Amino acid sequence: MTEIFLGIVQGITEFLPISSSGHLVIFDELLPEVNLNTNDIAFLHIGTLFSILIFYRTRILNIFNNFEVFKYYLKIITVGIIPAVVVGLLTPIQEIIDNSSQILIYTGIAYFVVSALLIFSEKINTKNVFSINEITISHAFIIGLAQAFALFPGVSRSGITLLTAMYIGVKKADAIYYSLLLGIPTIFGAWSLTFVNQSFEINTNIIIPTFAAMFTGILAINLLVKFTTNSKLQYFGFYCLLLSVVSFVIN
């Protein structure tokens, strides 16, 4: 039951701007009986990958119907994931953070910064917005740089890319879509690397929690779209602020 609960939590927190990794750090401290290894966590992420594919299935399929459109999306997605790939593969930052005795402090600081960005997100200038079809290479790279910060627990990958896209002028619905498109290769790549490093082992007990992550992930994307388009992201900001306090208190 604990694994299913964590699958549900993973599905919800992967897409809402409240950091799934930050929640896992806090739960690991509060619930010592939870003992998911990195391979199990990677499989939960595969569940959320399917959430994206299912939710945006029509738009994603349409990308493959036009070669010029496909090339454009391939370009902005590739550029968007380069910074995270470079930082993740060529620096030991993830290992340093994961093995640090101060990981709750890092998490608390990250949650505090993200909470401020979310709370003040409605101050973003929405007069000169543009669609996903107008994202340039430089736009994609800036959003990709922001995504690299999601290596820190407490920084939501979907949240930080969504906010960055909005801050540079991408309209809200398209900012969400592009943010989640970036998640497809990012999540799949992270899972593949972990799967290979774990010698292709599969824990059959994690299959049901993975489906739980997928179904709750679809619900979470719906919530993200609703809260973002209705200008209510600050509510997530207050929640992240609470988690920041919790991280500092239990450290």
How would you describe this protein?
It is a single chain. This protein has 251 residues and is mainly α. The chain has one domain. 75% of the residues lie in helices and 0% in strands. The protein is built from twelve helices and no strands. Helix 3 (38-55) crosses helix 11 (207-229), helix 7 (103-119) runs antiparallel to helix 12 (234-250) and helix 9 packs antiparallel against helix 10 (172-197). The protein is globular. It starts with a helix and ends with a helix. The model has no long low-confidence stretch (mean pLDDT 88).
- Taken as a percent bin, the fraction of beta residues is under 5%
Largest sheet: none
Report helical residue fraction.
over 70%
What is the helix tally?
Answer: 12
Summarize the structure.
The chain is mainly alpha-helical and 251 residues long. It has helices at 2-15, 20-30, 38-55, 57-63, 67-90, 93-98, 103-119, 137-148, 157-168, 172-197, 207-229, 234-250.
Key phrases:
single chain, 251 residues, mainly alpha, 12 helices
Layout of helices and strands, plus pairs?
Blueprint: H1 2-15, H2 20-30, H3 38-55, H4 57-63, H5 67-90, H6 93-98, H7 103-119, H8 137-148, H9 157-168, H10 172-197, H11 207-229, H12 234-250
Helix pairs in contact: 1-2, 1-3, 1-11, 2-12, 3-10, 3-11, 5-8, 5-10, 7-12, 8-9, 9-10
